[in-house]
Amino acid sequence: MFDPVIAPSGTLLGLLQRGRGDGTLHALTAPRAEALAALNHCVLHDPRRDWQVENRSLYYARLFLDLHGELDEIEAHLFDPEDSLDTDESRTGLALAVLGHLASYDRRDALALLRRYAATGANWAWALDELALRDDDAGLRALAAPVLARFATDAEGKAELAAAVRDAFEPRPWRLWADDPRASIATRVRAAHEAGCFDRWQQQLRPTGPRPGWSVQAVFEWAQQGAERGAALHVPAARCLVAVAGPEDRPQILRAAREGTDAARCTALRYLADGNDPAALDLIESAVSGGSATVLEAAVDAFERMCDMAAVDRARGWALRPDPLGAAAGRVLACRGAGQDRDLVLAALREAVRGEGPDAPTLWTLVDGAGRLGIVCAAPVLRHIYRETASSHLRGRAARALAVTDPSFAAGFAIECLWDCEETTRELAARHAETGDTRVVERLRRLAADPAEEAEVQTAVRSRIGPDSPTV
Question: What is the crossing angle of helices 309-318 and 324-336, to 10°?
Fold first, then answer.
């Protein structure tokens, strides 16, 4: 999936795309037509860079409820002719997940759309998973015939059906259909389930990769074979070395780390770093200076995994290097450094934002480090990341760091975080937001009563509004 176009953070669309709490608050005060247009744009054009881990569906569903939004545009998107041409689940997944949450809030029109799409849409499996959590048995049984009709009765169709049953995220519909009173339904589903179980058994009988008794050289050759196929196997290969290598093999492994093939160097560096070998740090520095891009990346990753004090001491000397090893050193100090390393971590944080922007992957670790080390001077940079990043996970990490470093957090960002799209961010806000603002008390009570809210959030809410709490 291509990277989505994210609107500026100061616009309503930009706030909603980011899943920020201020997005909801602004939408509720904006003209309804404008708010619904922005909301529908987000649902139909998934704004997440990593749609498999970032949350938006409950956030958008709640806003649909608050705005009393119609589902006409979602319906048109789902049943557009393009659905049969672009079958990537990222095209419709967010819309289906939003419908699922709306169905859990008793929106019958959302339930009807999910049923209809499960029967006819390309991403039917996602819709069926949503229904498995929310529909009744009668509704699911009605879908058995149209879903099974998707699969031919020849050998290829049977294999596809077996794979669908085996890989189903929510097994409830298939279990219902296996006991369907219609023999034509139950027989096919049971046969598919048995075939799927047989497939798993066969896969277990055909393991690939290293075997007991392999030599160190055999492991290096296996990693090289993977590289030639375009598969990076140095990480599992390094784990294999732990099982097959003895003290007498160390010279061979050191030699591979210095001058082996790329696959062998990557494997050896990972193995040596994981074992905190005294030669690992010098070999990593050499690999960064004179290795290929593949070896450089593996060397940096191996260094970041090292947990001993020698690695932390070396990181202090490398942190100002203007290369990937310097950036990795900043992350090592963020994770394992001490109070004396605050200035180096702060410098790395500022340089990452200045050089790569508020969505740089390195920021995840550096932001956590700023909070762990309590770097108060980092608060302005953290506030910038919070406002500008398109990643709701990174924003949540920035919020956690601000809770430690910014005295104004409880009366500022913590309040908007109560409406955030990520449950961990809402939980943080529930524990920190000042309750002098009437919106906070009302929001806490609504979260406590919302059956769709996560248990951790409600536990945090109850700690603020329970009978023994003096804060409300």
Answer: 130
Chain CA centroid to CA 284, Å = 30
Task: Count how many residues are written for the chain.
Answer: 472
C-alpha to C-alpha distance for 457 and 353, rounded to whole angstroms: 31
Pick left, alpha or beta for residue 321 (phi over 0 → left; psi -120 to 50 → alpha; otherwise beta).
beta
DSSP 8-class letter at 211: -
What type of residue sits at position 323?
D
The DSSP secondary structure of 356-373, one letter per residue, reads H-TT-TTHHHHHHHHHHT
Q: Where are the beta strands (DSSP E) in 331-439?
A: none
What secondary structure letter does DSSP report for 2? P
Q: Can you tell me the distance from the alpha carbon of 139 to that of 172, in angstroms, rounded to the nearest whole number? A: 12
CB neighbours of 330 closer than 8 A, spacing ≥ 6? 315, 319, 344, 345, 347, 348, 349, 351, 352, 362, 366
Distance CA 40, CA 177 (A): 35
Q: Which residues, including other chains, have CB under 8 Å from residue 428's CB and lie 6 or more apart? A: 396, 399, 400, 403, 414, 417, 460
CB-based burial, 192-223: b 16+ in 10 Å, e otherwise: bbebbeeeeeeeeeeeeebeeebebeebbbbb
Amino acid at 198: F
158, 198 contact by CB (below 8 A): no
The angle that helices 57-67 and 32-44 make with each other, rounded to 10 degrees, is 150
DSSP 104-138: HTT-HHHHHHHHHHHHH-TTHHHHHHHHHHHS-HH
> What span, in angstroms and rounded, lies between the C-alpha atoms of 236 and 232?
9
Give the separation between CA 400 and CA 379, rounded to whole angstroms: 11
Is the dihedral angle over the CA atoms 53, 59, 64, 65 positive or is it negative?
A: positive
- pLDDT tens, residue by residue, 271-290: 999 999 999 999 999 999 88
Question: CB neighbours of 277 closer than 8 A, spacing ≥ 6?
Answer: 250
Taking the model in full, what pTM does it have? 0.89
> What are φ and ψ of residue 369, in 5° steps?
-65, -40
Indicate if the pLDDT at residue 418 is higher than 90: yes
Q: Are 379 and 387 in contact (CB under 8 A)?
A: no
Whole-angstrom distance, CA of residue 228 vs CA of residue 262: 11
Residue 405's Cβ-count burial label (10 Å; 0-12, 13-18, 19+) is buried
Q: Please identify which residue in the block is written with the tokens 């490398």.
A: 318
Rounded to whole angstroms, how far apart are CA atoms 289 and 284?
Answer: 9
pLDDT in tens, 130-171: 999 999 999 999 999 999 999 998 989 888 989 998 888 899
* Separation CA 221–CA 217 (nearest Å): 6
**Lowest-pLDDT range, 12-16, 42-46, 228-232, 371-375?**
228-232
